[in-house]
Design brief:
The structure holds two protein chains of two kinds. By secondary structure, chain A is of the alpha+beta class. Chain A is about 25% helix and about 20% strand. In chain A, the strands form eight sheets. In chain A, strands 10-11-12-9-13-15-17 form a seven-stranded mixed β-sheet, with helices on both faces. In chain A, strands 4-3-8 form a three-stranded antiparallel β-sheet, with no helix packed on it. Helices cover about 55% and strands about 10% of the residues of chain B. The chains are: A alpha+beta, B alpha/beta.
Chain lengths: ~525, ~800
């Protein structure tokens, strides 16, 4: 079986965006030659290899030179291909603590071995099947073996030399991007979400496995704890490492289904200026997304900032959303974007927000997301749409009443979007001063996030990982096939002609107002339905 | 505005535009007219500090106020970054203030005090304070080297270790982590230590060094980081003790051999050191690197500066000299007159010390000389080469010659040819290397002759040139057409003349003999007479083949077959080689594909006709017989027709000539006569017309030469006479009435010859035979018809 792989870093841009097969991957070497030992191959009088080549005339020159080359092959070096990719983002963010500690090497400085390269092949063991690849139980290329015995399993993209997590490419891959409009609390949100990812996934009958070091590094760097300063804001030009999960769902009997879910963390400032260089660098991550979570600071709404003490409203969120739409639509202005967009209002528990949301909505938001349990007591793979529906309706109304520009922009540009609200801290924050009078802000505690998982679970539902237990507001399922990809017909298309009568001789116009994209069925939808 | 200094602040700032608040990481408070490249690099360094993980503290547990110095080759950036701030949302923030010193001119950096004494008070710690950029710099007390070393507790030896450690980190490609320098946490000590380091580094290194006062993820790419607990790091140096984990024996040796660091530390307390660094940079630039950063060129520059007395090179060991020259030759610096001068000097020393360059060095030297180098170096290289040629075995010397450029070689040949060894080498070089390379073409051989003209005694080369030329010519004889062979001969003759002058004639003559030996009937190209004539020599073979060639010339020029046959007849009567006939026939057939088929028969007849008169007749007959085909040629036709003043048809002339020939020939070879008769009858049958036809008696005369029964001629040809009325035929014939012919006619009728009915009609008409049943009936019918017609007429 052939596995097709799209690199989660460069999206195979140098290959015209076409997937590669598993035999095209390269490997990072497990063997490392550290230090100056290679130079000991040269006689004492020679400071470097260039000097040796130039001056040495002993009969063993070729032999020594080959020995040096063999040694040098495995010395950690800067990888130009890798550097070229990361230079766009102000340097790499890849960290592998184990490599650093145990092998005293940065992972990205390990020699990249190309099994197709004849020069490299002399360091590789040919396998009994005649190739240099070792495949896993399911036939995917997983390793190569060095002649010195080491098995190299760290696969990298042939175009940008970024690492693929184990088994990446074996299962269907979905990409999602979290974009935080400046100050929306994206880092806090992601930290809380990732910390509890497994338990959130279990709520909808999924098992989530982390498959790279990115999640651990992110959580280490951005821990949220009571009485501890909140993490700093994300530098906009830095690309954080993608966060990889394997989402496993139980099937009938012995079956299980696995999907790879990749989450990107992108700063909202990137999209402030559509013509800026940062947009160009980050655009591919949005373009390739199967779902987007956009976080908005409530202070970006005039109704909320107006009630705050300093009365300052933040940058309008529609600026960034417009830029994002332009990237996603790829210049196709005629069609709405159908990528699911979760528009999330963060800090839902702050006083200013509570004042304008009203008691009813606030009481709904204060509850945790409830799972739907099956007869055996385990949560079912179902998004609790029944519980979310009233929140959704009220948030819709809030936006319509107070942020008509945003509401209209979303309706005009996006066909699949929902509003959410959550609090990632669930507690107040306070400013503290240390002994040197330096100020910082800390959660008062206890930290109890509320409904941070809801937008993600809705995305899971939209990506097909799970189902739902009721129709969602704004969703009109097709009475013919059940698909929710249905649209309102324009005024001039609201008549459907049908043949009636004994022999179908009579042609009758019947009123219709909706259309199903999946089965092309047209029908008349009324609010009662 | 501070003279020579730019400023830029960077933070996660909030901006109010009307009632809208925008925020994000950005540069704030920037000096006017900030150069774009400097601004871009400055904000890049500042942005690299914007990742804030947890509480950013220094090693003492204080909120971090990071001190950094960074150079990009053009500017030096001196920064302080204050952490422990919060943005409008209460999140962790930092504020970075950078002073930027242009470093393109070395004046600004020659004294490290210019950037090391900027007091901390000059650095703003928040956006509010930075609203007004510093207009005057508050300076700390300037360091001098003695006080700085004292503050750091350094003597020259420890200082050298410190500086070497820093340099090793900066230049070893395999070291990608910072060097941690131990200090006591006092920033004054840190600055003093930096003063020592900067003072001992060449300008180019000063411009690229990056320093941080504290290690964190953001400073992981710095060259050096100061730390109170540096010893725990992979690469560290404790200046106080000299202990370090970065210098290996080899790297220390390498740096020592560079020279400039040891020199700097040795002279650190002398006023001349600054001048030394200026010169080092200047000379490195003159050697080919305008940035002054090329380590190899710096090493050479140092050598040039410190070895002002050329005689000092005499004191250097062979190995030292070899290293110096090797460094100079492997540097990519081309077009530098200073480098040329330096190499020339070293080469002369190599010669004086009777040293030999390694192959790689020799190749580098040859490659260098191929480009535009100074006359001084060329002369030096010549001296080295001459010395080498006299020292080394010929085979080795030849390899050196092989690596020379044409220009170099041309100049060198003359000098080399002045000595016996040189001449032997050159002879070996041309005879083996050059001729192996060029001996396969005339141009190549001639080039070798021209290039080797500079020296006379070259027996090997001369012998090999003759061999190569002869081989080329002989190969041409085997495979080429005559035109190419003649060309090849000309080249051969010209080449040998170039080599031997008048002595070449005997070779040229022999070449022609060989040529004719190679020419035979089977390979002669008959339409290339002119080419063959160029190769003519007075030998039987040459004359014979030239004559053979001549035969065809009339045919080629005017298609005069008569002359052709005549010439051939003469030739054949002398040579008597049947192959020549076959070849000639085939040649004519190929050359004149539209020629009538009976040409071959004529050819054979004429060839085997011994009598000269016969040949004349036959040729005339041939000429007459082909004239019909050439009616276009009116002149010839008229000439033939009115030749004798008597108007005679061509047909009559053919017939008459034939019978004259038969009558006159002494050659009683009936076969030939029969053949001629056969041809002539066929010709006559073609030539005759209703008005001018051949009568029955003439046909019967022809028939007598073809068959025993002359009537059988009508089985071969179908002349007009067969279709004429019996009356017209018989009335004009005398033979048909003679008993001898009557008998032959009856026999022909009896044997059912193909025209027996016509002959029988003739016989019936003469009354020598009775008509058959059908004949009688026809006769009756025709007489009845005549009667009725006469009645009608009446």
């Amino acid at each position: 079986m052939e596995y097709n792989i799209i690199c989660p870093y460069c999206f195979n841009e140098k290959n015209g965006g076409k997937p590669i097969n598993d035999e095209q991957v390269l490997f990072r070497s497990e063997k490392i030659n550290n230090g100056d030992a290679g130079l000991d191959i040269l006689p004492e009088d020679y400071d470097d290899i260039e000097s040796f080549i130039q001056r040495y005339s002993g009969s063993d020159k070729e032999e020594r030179l080959q020995k040096y080359k063999d040694w040098d092959f495995f010395t950690p070096k800067k990888d130009e291909v890798y550097e070229e990719f990361w230079n766009k983002f102000g340097g790499t963010t890849e960290v592998n603590p184990l490599d650093k500690k145990a092998f005293n090497v940065e992972s990205y400085m390990r020699k990249v071995i190309d099994p197709q390269n004849s020069e490299h092949q002399k360091y590789l063991v040919k396998q009994p099947n005649g190739s240099y690849f070792i495949r896993d139980n399911e036939g995917m290329v997983a390793q190569i073996e060095l002649t010195s015995g080491e098995k190299c399993h760290r696969r990298v993209c042939p175009f940008c030399h970024n690492p693929f997590p184990d088994a990446y490419g074996k299962f269907p891959v979905k990409f999602a991007t979290v974009i935080g409009i400046t100050g929306a609390g994206k880092t806090v949100y992601l930290s809380q979400l990732l910390k509890r990812m497994r338990s959130y996934a279990v709520k909808v009958g999924l098992d989530a496995h982390v498959t790279n070091a990115g999640v651990r590094v992110f959580l280490d760097n951005n821990a949220i704890e009571a009485q501890k300063p909140l993490p700093g804001s994300t530098p906009p030009n830095r690309l954080q490492q993608p966060l990889f999960y394997e989402m496993v769902k139980e099937g009938d009997g012995d079956e299980r289904y696995t999907d790879t879910f990749v989450l990107y963390d992108v700063a909202g400032e990137v999209f402030r200026d559509e013509s800026g260089g940062l947009v160009r660098s980050f655009a591919p991550f949005v373009e390739h997304s199967d779902g987007v979570i956009v976080l908005i600071d409530p202070m970006q709404f005039e109704i909320i900032s107006g009630t705050s003490k300093n009365h300052k409203q933040l940058d309008d969120p529609t600026t960034a959303l417009n830029t994002i739409h332009h990237i996603i639509s790829n210049g196709n202005a005629k069609k709405k974007c159908d990528i699911p967009f979760a528009i999330c209002i963060s800090k839902s528990d702050t006083e200013e927000v509570q004042d304008v949301f009203g008691e009813e909505l606030c009481s709904l938001l204060v509850n945790d997301v409830e799972e739907i349990k099956g007869d055996d007591g385990f949560p079912l793979p179902i998004f609790n749409a029944k519980e979310y529906a009233p929140i959704c309706e009220k948030l819709n109304k809030f936006i319509m009443d107070n942020e008509l520009v945003l509401a209209k922009m979303m309706k005009t540009n996006y066909s699949t979007y929902k509003y959410f609200a959550f609090t990632a801290l669930g507690c107040d924050v306070k400013e503290i001063e240390d002994e040197q009078n330096k100020k910082s802000t800390c959660p008062v505690g206890p930290v109890i996030p509320k409904r941070v998982e809801e937008p993600l679970l809705w995305l899971f539902y939209r990506l097909g990982y799970i189902g739902k237990n009721a129709a969602l507001p704004g969703e009109v399922p097709c009475p013919n096939c059940g698909s929710i990809k249905t649209y309102e017909l324009p005024e001039d298309e609201r008549e459907e002609y049908v043949r009636k009568g004994l022999f179908g001789l009579r042609r009758m116009a019947i009123p219709v107002n909706r259309y199903c994209e999946d089965c092309q069925y047209k029908w008349e939808y009324t609010q009662d339905q | 505005m501070i003279k020579n200094m730019l400023q830029c602040c960077y933070t996660n700032a909030s901006r109010e535009e009307g009632s809208i608040l925008t925020s994000g990481w950005q540069a704030v408070c920037v000096s006017p007219d900030f150069p774009r490249d400097a601004f871009s690099e400055c904000t890049r360094i500042q942005n690299a500090n914007s990742t804030i993980n947890g509480i950013m503290k220094d090693e003492s547990g204080n909120v971090l106020n990071l001190f950094e110095i960074s150079g990009d080759g053009s500017y030096i950036y001196i920064l302080r970054t204050q952490y422990g701030l919060t943005d409008r949302l209460g999140r962790a923030n930092m504020f970075s203030h950078a002073y930027v010193l242009p470093a393109k001119s070395n004046e600004n950096i020659s004294d490290p005090n210019s950037f090391l004494t900027i007091a901390n008070e000059n650095f703003k710690e928040n956006e509010e304070d930075a609203m007004r950029l510093q207009e005057n710099l508050i300076r700390l007390k300037a360091f001098d080297i003695r006080s700085a070393m004292e503050i750091c507790g350094l003597d020259k030896e420890k200082m050298l270790t410190l500086v070497k450690s820093v340099y090793a980190q900066m230049t070893d490609k395999k070291i990608v982590k910072p060097l941690f320098i131990r200090y006591n946490g006092d920033e004054n000590v840190l600055r003093a230590m930096l003063y020592c380091i900067y003072s001992a580094l060449p300008f180019s290194a000063r411009k690229r060094l990056s320093v941080a006062s504290v290690f964190n993820e953001n400073t992981a790419n710095m060259n050096i980081v100061f730390s109170v607990s540096a010893g725990e790091q992979e690469y560290f140096c404790n200046p106080a003790t000299g202990e370090n984990s970065i210098l290996t024996e080899r790297s220390e040796r390498r740096i020592t051999r560079l020279g400039f660091l040891d020199h700097a530390v040795k002279n650190i307390d002398t006023p001349q050191l600054s001048e030394y660094f200026f010169r080092l940079e200047e000379i490195t630039g003159s050697l080919g690197d305008p940035t002054g950063a090329n380590e190899l060129l710096m090493k050479i520059a140092h050598s040039i500066i410190t070895t002002s007395d050329k005689s000092e090179y005499d004191k250097k060991s062979d190995s030292e000299l070899d290293i110096l020259l090797s460094d100079a030759l492997r540097s990519d610096s081309l077009g530098s007159s200073l480098m040329d001068k330096y190499i020339a000097l070293l080469l002369d020393k190599v010669v004086a010390k009777k040293m030999v360059l390694s192959n790689e060095n020799d190749i580098s030297l040859s490659n260098r000389v191929k480009s535009n180098v100074s006359k001084e170096l060329l002369e030096s290289v010549d001296r080295y080469r001459l010395y080498m040629f006299n020292e080394m075995p010929i085979e080795k010397a030849v390899i050196v010659l092989e690596n020379m450029s044409d220009n170099e070689m041309d100049g060198f040949v003359k000098k080399l040819s002045e000595t016996d060894k040189g001449r032997q080498t050159l002879d070996h070089y041309y005879s083996v290397v050059e001729l192996n390379k060029n001996g396969g073409s005339w141009e190549g051989i001639q080039r070798v002759i021209v290039r080797s003209k500079g020296f006379k005694q070259k027996p090997e080369t001369q012998k090999r040139i003759i061999e190569c030329a002869t081989a080329l010519y002989e190969n041409s004889l085997k495979v080429d057409k005559v035109k190419q062979i003649v060309e090849s001969y000309n080249n051969y003759a010209k080449t040998l003349e170039m080599l031997l002058g008048d002595e070449s004639e005997k070779y040229a003559h022999q070449a022609k003999i060989d040529f004719w030996k190679n020419v035979g009937y089977y390979n002669i190209e008959l339409d290339q007479r002119d080419e063959y004539s160029k190769m003519y020599i007075d030998t039987f073979e040459s004359s014979k083949m030239m004559a053979y060639c001549e035969i065809s010339q009339e045919l080629l020029k005017k298609e005069n077959f008569e002359k052709f046959f005549r010439n051939f007849n003469i030739y054949f009567s002398k040579v008597k080689d049947e192959t020549s006939i076959k070849v000639l026939v085939n040649w004519v057939k190929t050359k004149f594909p539209n020629l009538r088929k009976d040409f071959e028969i004529w050819f054979e007849i004429i060839t085997y006709t011994k009598d000269k008169n016969d040949v004349e007749y036959l040729l005339e007959l041939y000429d007459l017989s082909v004239i019909k085909e050439e009616t276009e040629d009116n002149e010839r036709h008229d000439k033939l027709t009115f030749e004798s003043g008597e108007k005679k048809s061509q047909l009559n002339r053919v017939v008459d000539t034939f019978f004259d020939y038969v009558e006159c020939t002494r050659d009683k070879n009936k076969k030939i006569i029969k053949a001629v008769a056969s041809l002539i009858t066929a010709v006559c049958a073609r030539l005759e017309t209703e008005e001018d036809y051949v009568d029955l008696d003439t046909w019967l005369r022809f028939g007598n030469y073809i068959d025993e029964n002359c009537f059988y001629i009508f089985d071969v040809v179908k002349p007009i006479v067969l279709s004429l009325s019996e009356q017209e035929v018989i009335d004009n014939s005398t033979y048909i009435k003679e008993s001898e012919y009557i008998e032959l006619a009856n026999e022909y009728i009896k044997d059912r010859g193909s025209e027996y009915k016509t002959v029988k009609k003739w016989m019936v008409y003469t009354g020598e035979a009775k008509p058959g049943l059908f004949g009688r009936f026809t006769k009756l019918f025709e007489s009845g018809k005549d009667q009725s017609e006469s009645k009608k007429n009446k």
